[in-house]
Amino acid sequence: MNYRLSAVYLIVIIFVSCVGQNNTLFIPEPDFSIYNESEKIIEISNIIETKDGAGIRGLPNWLLSYIEGGIEAVERLDSYRDKYVFISVNEGDNFTALNKWIENFSPAHDFPILAAARIDKRIISSASLYPDNEYGMFYEAIIKNAYSSEYPGAVKEDTYWMKVWFERENTWEYTENYKFFVLITINKTAMQNIIRNMFSRSIGTVSVTVNQNNSINRLRQTFFERF
Known about the structure:
The chain has 227 residues and is an alpha+beta fold. It has one domain (5-225). Helix content is 47%, strand content 18%. It has 8 helices and 4 strands, in the order H-E-H-E-H-H-H-H-E-E-H-H. Strands 1-3-4-2 form a 4-stranded antiparallel β-sheet. A hairpin with a 6-residue loop joins strand 3 (155-167) and strand 4. Helix 6 crosses helix 7. The protein is elongated and about 55 Å long. The two termini are 23 Å apart.
């Protein structure tokens, strides 16, 4: 097991979800780079069409905050101070396929992917070594639990789409595509309790070294500081 575990589980879950819902298997895959807050998702000036037809003036506060400052900026809004915010992003030039994706997006089926991605990122950011060296088999166990856990209370609060233009990399050519956004929230206390239970279940199923156990205990004590 290595730090690419989450990508493997992402592919498996997307495949199983598509088969279970009897949908076609060609579904645009969400862009999970949304968790890199240092990477700007879009330039406001590049927006040429929006869901409500109001242009930039019609952007909802959560989306404007996300574009300008990432997830942390959204969570600082008064409406979300007691919640964790997750935003799933999908993009492409097939409006019909993207619209189908956003209509079928279900917190029960799709939120575990977003939650596990954030949990994985938090664990990786705390490791001074590779996570599977720092935490041993606990790392694999908790990521598995993150993907398979239920997250009651996760709510699909809003959706939005826009059409944008951008310059093709290493060319002078310009093109356009659509970006679709789904806003999901969950109460902070509820999410923290789920993760604490996840820690307990995971550590109870694996054997780790003394040093790994010490690293796991430090992680448990500080996990929510930058989550």
